[in-house]
Structure formats: structure tokens, C-alpha cells
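Homework help thread (please don't just give me the answer)

Our assignment gives two proteins as sequence + C-alpha cell strings and asks us to describe the second one. The first is just a warm-up. Here they are:
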Amino acid sequence: MGRLLRQQKKTVALAESCSGGYIAHMLTEIPGASAYFEGGIIPYHNRHKAGLLDVSEEVLAQKGAVSEETVAQMAEGVRRQFGASIGLSSSGIAGPSGGWAEKPVGTVWIACATEKGVRTKKLQLTADRGLNIRLTGISVLNLLRQELANISE
């Protein structure tokens, strides 16, 4: 991943809610990450999604924090805040509680924003919190890989 980012002269910023900084950890444990990693925000509470990342209060009220619209705005907002080429985001219900019929535990939305637009993806993961955080991190980095390799699903 780092090689592709350096080759393409791209930088990344993160807005992580349900992954709680795990994706930043995954990126920064690679030597040389400072060449492409701008930084991240962990807006766990909705007021920070709105205040720091310009997520619409209306979207949060109508669609909720765990929605395609929210992660798209989070990814765009973090990209702008850090002046990065790419903004990545995650928001979901890691568990083991907090879910309901429409959004059960393990429901996660992720996004990747670039100057070309925003890619989003819904994940339906497990009831295991730690596993959900790890799978979210892997899925976000895979979304980034697809963007860099110009692969569409």
C-alpha cells in the first residue's frame, strides 16, 4: 500500500469511528508512513462528526451515524481538513451490544473519498467487537488498494 501511495504521490487522512484508530495503527506500523499519512480523527461522538468533519446534522438525525451518507461526508471532511489526496472513514456497530433490527451488531459502513468522488461499502460483520475492528481496518485498506489500483467492484 505504501509503495502505491508513494508512487502515485498520494496522501491519506482517516476519520475512524468504530475502528477507534486501528486503521491509523495499521498504516503507521509500516516504516516510511510519514511520506503518505497526514493524520486522523476519531470522531466517536456525533457532535465531533458534525463539528470536525462537517457531517450534516440532518444526515445524522435522519440516517444515523452508521450510514452511507455519514461515512461519505466523514471521508470528504477528513480529506479537506488534512489537505490529503484521499480521505478514508469508518462508522459502525462494533458490538457486542448497540444493534437493532435495521442495523444489527456488525453493521459497518466505510468510505474512500478522492477528487474524483466517494466510494462506499457496507459490511455485515460478526458479533465479536475485536474481530469487527480488525475486519473493518482490513476492509478500509482494501478499499484504498482498489482506489489506487483503479479497481471497481
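The one we have to describe:
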Amino acid sequence: MPEDSEQDPEDEFRELLSQFLSGNSEIDPARLASAAGLPNDPEMLKNLIGQLQSALQSTDDGINWKLALDQAQQLATADSRPMTPAERSSIEQSLHVAALWLDEATEITELTTTPKLMTRTEWIRATMPFWTQLAEPVALSIANSLTDVLREQAPEEMNGMIEGASKLMRNVGGTLFAMQLGQVVGQLSSEVVSGGDIGIPLLGSGSNDEQQAAILPQNLSQFGADLDIDQDQVQLYMAVRELAHARLFRHAKWLKLQLTTSITEYAHGIRIDTDRLEELAADFDPANPEQLRDAMVSGALIPPKTEAQVAALGRLETTLALIEGWVDVVTAQATTRLPKSGAIAETVRRRRAAGGPAESAFATLVGLELRPRRLREAAAMWQKLTDEVGPELRDSLWSHPDLIPTTQDIDDPVGLVMRLTGAEPEQDPIDMAIQDLLNDVSDDRPVEGDDGTAKG
């Protein structure tokens, strides 16, 4: 072959990337790791380079989510400890007592599966399918947008290279995104206390008729250590919360589908702001790859929500508030024997409202916050129902999606009670006085006869 023959554009682009990964470029791989949100760790950098090199050789056109799983498990393993026999026995006893207390507070029956005590790594393996399902639309959008922008920004003589290398770009971009997701989920594994801590049912037994409850003993111990409250009380309270959450999703089998549908509708509507991405590409400094990460973390690449996304987000936030509000009320009712239950409840509410660092990172990565915006109002509504109609009628509202309270019911719990009981609403004294006055005026008017003349 002649020496001046053109090199295949895809091979040329692959060679450029290989030179970069070998350290023969202006970009420091360690800074790229920082841009991807990974810690400044030699072993982590070595892993990143190895994964990117594998992405260059891959013939698949998609995102390798196993990287996210491996990354998350690596983080969890580095900071985890085994459960002691005494710890296991104590939490198992708390779960047993919690189930008995819940029977007194709700008509929703107990679980048919034994709650699990999970390590951080086990929690990651069990929940990663959900995280990848939620993140995939965003990851694909970013990868495709990067390719489109590079194609538009590249000089005309490089078009062939970019066209031939589009799959490579998606693979490399997808690898960085997957490893960043793994970093976030790995951090989450050190924050969550139980299976329902995020507010949605991340765990399942594989059967439509069953719902899995779980406690992470290491994280529960850390949560309790930050409170000036006896650990036994903290364990009991959190066990009641977790079992209440799992019972609700087992009872209302439609609820999980409704939640995931709203989440999916929102996620699939996410697009990347290509104008902003073009600006980044035009001003990109090879020595400062953190620019791209800063744009992602700030949410600058995700444009304002569409009307459909706003509607899906509204439905999601209302449903999350109803779930968390019900769990709060039922848990409070079931834990009246605990002297410090109120203090623990307030800590849980504040923690839930604020979210942890990893949850915040996930929100910026995907553009979705899994938090109940109207938690206190929803809890007040459920408490009003408990006081006025009792637990049985209150819990019957979860039997069908058409019965579940709406955002209007959260605003007007008195009206909801009236509707459920069939009672006539009490009239305002001023309205009654006006009505009486109008009736008096009507009674004093002359009555017309058949010929139109007044009688009386």
C-alpha cells in the first residue's frame, strides 16, 4: 500500500484517543478523572484508563452499565464492615416488635417475606437496575449530543473522521457517565438506612404479590450515633418506618407502576441543551476538562422542563408526599410507646427534605429530585383522616388509584372528610345570616295571582 494512502478515519480517531490514554496528549488523565467526578486516587485512575481503553475496542453501541455496578461496589467495599451477631439479633428483634406495633396502627396486613439485613454492596446489587433504568435516557442523550456537536464544530476536512468515530464517542462518553453514576450510587449506599429510604420501592422479591423490606445495619448504626437517643429506640422507630413503607407497596400493587411511570415520563423527556454544549466545545480548554463536569453538576446542560415534564414531576411529587405522609402518620401512631419518637421523626423529616450529598449529585446528574415537596401538608391530611374517619377508612383509599387523595385533597382535608363520611359541610355564620335575610325578604314579597295582580 502506498505510504501516502489515507488512514481510515475511525482508526485515525482511535489512534488519537489511544495516544491520550497513554499520556501522550495535552490532557492529563488525572484531570479527566476529576472531571468525571471520580476521586483523585491512583487505583481509580488506573481503572478509568483501563475502562476507556476497553471502550475503544468495544464493538457494542450502547452503555456498559456493568461499569456503574463495579464502580459502586468498589466504593462500598472500601468503607464497609461486617455485621456483628449482636447487631443482627438486636435489629431482628426490633423488626419483630415493629410488626406487632404496626398491626395496631394500620389495617394493611403484614409482609409475606422476611425483612433482609443488607450490606452496602448487597443494596447496590439489588437497586442498580432501577438507577440504570432511570439514568439511561440522560446518558444516551449526552452521548448523542456530544457526537452531534463535534460533527457541527469540526472543520470540514475532519468530517470523515467524526462520522466514522461516532460510535467510539458514544462508547467513551457512555463509559464516563456509567462510572460517574457508579460513584453516585456507591455514595448513596453509605447514606441510606433502609430499602424505602429514598421514598420509592427500590427492592422487590421478584414476585408481583410480594414486597421486600430491608435494613442496612452499618448505616442505621451511623444514623443513630448522630442522635442523643438510645440506639434501641432508633432501631425500633426505623424498623416501623421500613415495614410500613413495604406494607403499603405490597397492599397497593398499582402504586409502584404509577411511580415508575411518572419517573420514566420525566426521564424520557430530558434533552441536552446543544447550544450550551456548542459554547463549551468552542471555548473548551484541553488543560481544564473540569469545565464539562462543572456544566453537568450545575445542571447547565439540561434545558428548562417541558410542559409534559412539569406535569409528570407534579404527579410524582404528589404521590411521594402522599406515601411519605402516610408512613409518617402510621409510624407515629405505632411508636407512641417510644419516649423519643417525636425527636426521631423530626430528624427523619429534616434529613428527607434536605437530601444527602449523593442524592443531590444524582439530582444534578439526571435532573430529577426524588423528594416529597409537600410532605408536611400530606401528613396533616392523613392525620385529619385518622382522627375523623379512623384507620380502616383511611387505609381503604390505597385500594385503587381512583381513590387516592389528590393535591386538592391535601389542600382541603376537611372537604375530603366530608366526602368520605357523606356529611353536610358546616355553613359559615355570616353566610347563614345573609341567607336568612334573603329568605325574610322573599317572604315579605306580594304573591301574584293568575291574572298578574298582587294578592294579599
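TA reply:
I won't write it for you, but here's a hint about the kind of observation we're looking for: The radius of gyration is 29 Å.
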